[in-house]
Design a protein that fits this description.
alpha+beta, single chain, 3 strands
Length: 99
């Protein structure tokens, strides 16, 4: 299960002046529930996956990862968490960012 707009983990919806206020926003609540029921690939402890190890409210661990299978490299990216301004607000789909 990769992150995405289907699970409301949208960076521009994280509002609040402190960590406690941000923890109550929909993206943070959804992230906590996803991690409770679907462990991040980095939690497996297997060297098969390579993932980010960023921790904290601003960048969740495991929100992008990659692995190699034979000659293929599979990369899963999360453009939603790091996009802090809603691209829908200005109708500019190219404003999505990976960080």
């Amino acid at each position: 299960l990769a992150n995405g707009n289907h699970d409301s983990e949208l960076g521009w919806a994280i509002k609040g002046q402190d960590d406690q206020a941000r923890a109550q926003t929909m993206p943070m609540v959804c992230r906590a529930h996803r991690q409770q029921y679907f462990a991040d690939v980095s939690a497996s402890g297997e060297p098969f996956y390579r993932t980010n190890r960023d921790l904290g409210a601003s960048a969740p661990e495991g929100n992008y990862y990659a692995w190699e299978w034979g000659d293929a490299k599979v990369i899963v990216l999360d453009p939603y968490w790091n996009t802090k301004d809603s691209p829908k607000a200005n109708h500019k789909a190219w404003d999505w960012t990976l960080g």
